[in-house]
Amino acid sequence: MISRDVIYRIIAPLLVFGALYLGWEWVAQNLRSILPPFGDITAEFARRPLFYAVNLWATLSNALIGFAFGAGAAVILSVLMVYFGFLRMAIIPVALLLNVTPVVAISPALIVAFGFNAIPHIIVASIAAFFPMLINAMAGLSAIDREAHDLFRALSASRTEIFLRLRLPSSLGHLFAGAKLSIISAMVGSVVSEFMGTSKGLGATIVLATNFLNLSQMWAAIFISALTSLVLVGIVTLIERLVIRW
User: Fold this and answer.
1) Do 88 and 173 fall into the same domain?
2) Alpha helices in 84-201, H assignment, sequence order
3) Minimal CA–CA distance to 203: which of 179, 181, 187?
4) Can the keyword Ion transport be found in this entry's annotation (predicted)?
5) Domain tally, the chain
6) Domain limits at 159?
């Protein structure tokens, strides 16, 4: 008898993907101006793998650098906000403003300021990665066991010792959850920022395909972007399992 765990984790997702595939193919066969068949998408990728690899690297490198800067800044600010409460009142409104500002609106201003290079795209990816990590890191660093904290204080532990031995280990779950959201946001921000100001990257590939109504190229770039995000999340999840063993 098949266990519930196998049904929930394997069979159910496969059934959903199968239904989506059949629905996609039906639309592709009857409304080819809306969706291309999967066969055309895979053939497009197989025809020009180097083209997609080069553009993927352009997008991925900007996303990873942006993630490093955005998530790193968020963790540092979260630590400061935990220890200096007045900073929370000053930083959170600015972070919210950045989070609700559309990256498409920011990109032109950054291109004017920094030129047609990778810097505007890295900044957009950093902004996109910043808020998810900030919220999760702040929640994790703040949600500590009060009894354990009081015990550390009773033993005359310093702030550094409390942070390294209590706050940081307790917050790892939140930090990795934030990292997963941030790295996806950085990838999305990198792709969207490439809609203008560059001829390289998956975003530029999507725009070029849209201009020429090349649906196969457009969806190939979209699927590559989505699969890359899944791989990045998988890598973060693997690191999480290696680090958090309890």
Assistant:
1) yes
2) 85-100, 103-114, 119-142, 146-154, 159-162, 168-193
3) 187
4) no
5) 2
6) 36-243
- Are residues 148 and 103 part of one domain? yes
Which positions ≥6 away from 179 have C-beta within 8 Å?
71, 133, 236
Mean pLDDT of the chain: 88
* Cβ-based neighbour number of residue 81 at 10 Å: 21
What digits encode the pLDDT tens for the residues 68-111? Answer: 999 999 999 999 988 887 888 888 888 888 888 887 788 888 88
As a whole number of angstroms, the distance between CA 38 and CA 42 comes to: 6
pTM (two decimals): 0.88
Two structure tokens written together for 107: 């990109």
Phi first, then psi: give them for residue 18, nearest 5 degrees. Answer: -65, -40
Q: Which amino acid is at 38?
A: F
Domain identity same for 139 and 174: yes
